[in-house]
Amino acid sequence: MMYRERWKGALAMGLLWTVATFVTYYFLLGDYMNGFGLWTILFVSLLLLVCGLAVYLGGVMLLAGFNTMTREERAQYNIKEVTSFMGIFLVLISYLALLMIIHFVFFTVFIAAVLVMVIYVNVSKRFRAST
To answer: Which tens digit of pLDDT belongs to each residue from 71-99?
Structure first.
């Protein structure tokens, strides 16, 4: 399984996310938001982080579409590349979700990142299995 070879990377991503979140709260978010709104944003961001780490560790069935594919269709994809890319992307998106409450620019960056990711995943041959 992939989790055996990737657990150190997942731990590093989780620790970096935690440090970045505390630094962001201390320097930026303290003046912007208090109470329920902050906890809601932190919960959503943490949920995205957990999903990202689960995908990074090999949870390909958490990705939309993979759980409905046949074995032959799944064989066309390089599962290791897909889980690595999508796991890291979800961790980055979780931090962008936290930053969206600071300024509208981060919301624009969030939408742009999602659009670029969707286009890249559909156009790139990186995720196709070599046959």
So the answer is: 888 888 888 888 888 888 888 888 888 77
> In the chain, pLDDT over 90 holds for what percent of residues?
0
97 burial via Cβ count (<10 Å: 0-12, 13-18, 19+) = buried
What residue type is 77 in one-letter code? Y
- C-alpha to C-alpha distance for 50 and 10, rounded to whole angstroms: 10
